[in-house]
Amino acid sequence: MALLDPDAIHPITLPDGMVYRDTVYLKNVIDHPRMEVGDFSYFTHAERPEETARILAPYLGHAVRERLVIGKFVQIARGSYFITSSANHPMTGFTTYPFRIFKPETFGYKDLPVKDTVVDHDVWIGHNAAIMPGVHIGSGAIVAAASVVARDVPPYAVVGGNPASVIRMRYPSEVIGELLEIAWWDWPIDKIEANLAALCAGDIVALRNV
């Protein structure tokens, strides 16, 4: 029996048989034209599943220009959220007050620059982290709890703080290059589960031979 069901809404069943309803697979609960989510990426929160997009990216409207792109196998802890470009205020003048949003005919700042926010694959975002507009988080990165990520994060980096900075790299550069080339997250799920021992043990030699 497979460990992971790609069609599940609540993917965690506790040892006593109870379904843990605070964790949801994002792809199966989000219907938002400006959000793209890969398989098996999850988020934990205590509200209804249909509220997930609003909680995760509260400023990402359906008609905005930017996108929030989340890859496969991303793990997003409770309290974390994305502040997208649509939350920005004008900063080129003498005031940052968003005067235009208070009238329907002037609502929005279409002249402000926007940039997609992208989270690649197998990223762990810790409790209460805030991801700022336009950030690109590379595959395999870890974002420490309560961090404010205001700049791009390299693949397989561990970052933390406010603003988040690189604490260390998880592996040597040659191993990171191999992992990005192997891209195990693109394998069929049965192949992934058949090679969990190598993945969980960090056995790069075994992965090379798959």
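^ that was protein a. below is b, sequence first then the tokens
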Amino acid sequence: MKDIEYVKELLRSKYATERDLEIPYPSLAAVVQEQEFSFAEGVVAGEVSFGSENRDGKRYLKFESGGKSIYTHRFIVSYALGRWMPRECDVDHINHDPTDNRPSNLRIVTPRDNGSNKRKALLSELVDLDGVKEKQSEPVPEKVVVPVPEPEPEPYKTEIPTNLFDISKAPMSSGSIPVTRFTGETKPANYAGAFGGMWYKTNLDTWHLLFEPPAELRR
């Protein structure tokens, strides 16, 4: 089987993107939204070098996203594929420069090899690189912020004595009905104040709304 056919068949399968005990990759869409990068140049903002130097004194590049260290070359390949690339495959730099992550300089190395001659699939053989470049040039849609409606004002509540209609406090008797007298204690009637009303307390612990003092209190 030719290498390009093997890779295409692998991409059509349900493959693993990381090995056991490795930190899972964050959502590729989330990384694309959060990271500033140039697909054409193969550069990600905030990337740093790591690992041992090659014979030219250059190292691979990586960046942090979603709590995971991500190789720039694997991210560029995955962005072109539209999902994270298979973990069983590696990315080879054609010009042997690990800092040159342009899509045209990357190819997928499969485990299917013969001695030192590794089979390699060019990224350009798998995807339309020009189409992916045009895709990245499209403006990223802005997040829609849904306004939270303001709460409706509570209706105006008129202060009314809580025991106005509470007859449980009235003494119960099988004998004669007790005589009602006013004690002289009063409360202003907020909603009737404009008309001169006033609440008057009785000896039965009840309240009466009157617009003039009772006769017994006008002495």
